[in-house]
């Protein structure tokens, strides 16, 4: 039986597909074990099937990047690379979930989004008040400011400067218009629920 190092050298120098197949057969279990650790918990946000489809490529890529002078086994290197891949996917998922005002409008239909039913009801009613007040607002600049500021795909607030440039107003005036509307919404919520 050939050693992992010998198989890896053949893959690197000759692009030997038989060596790659043998390496994949030997180390698929390590890859699957690490993916399962990240995908089998009840709160998992990574798709196990997606990662398992990528298994052969990750093992091939790991073989090309493996450096035996670092005094680690290939299986350890592969496990670390797989762990990094899973953690990276989780991090990207948390950072870049797109959120829009439409999601806020639909939140009351998603009963699973909040654990406590009374909290859910209050949140849904507050969102309803916000949306009704926004729809009924006569100043179109408010709608544009809210849309520009919060309706982003990267889950980050758009800088005030960009809203000001799009509307042809000063940054301070955009902030003032925004805060007036938010305060009006807060007063209405307090009036209705306090």
Please provide a written account of the structure.
The protein folds into two domains: 4-95, Rna Polymerase Sigma Factor, Chain: A; 101-193, no CATH class. The protein has ten helices and no strands. The chain has helices at 4-14, 17-39, 48-53, 55-65, 74-95, 101-106, 117-136, 140-150, 160-167, 171-193. α2 (17-39) packs across α4 (55-65) and α8 packs across α10 (171-193). The protein is elongated, with a radius of gyration of 26 Å.
pLDDT < 50 runs, ≥5 residues: 95-100
The helix fraction, in percent, is: over 70%
What percentage of the residues does DSSP assign to strands (E)? under 5%
Task: Output mean pLDDT.
Answer: 79
Report on the biggest sheet: none
Distance linking N and C termini: 76 Å
CA radius of gyration: 26 Å
Task: Give a quick precis of the structure.
The chain has 194 residues and is mainly α.
Task: Output the keywords.
single chain, 194 residues, mainly alpha, Rna Polymerase Sigma Factor, Chain: A, 2 domains
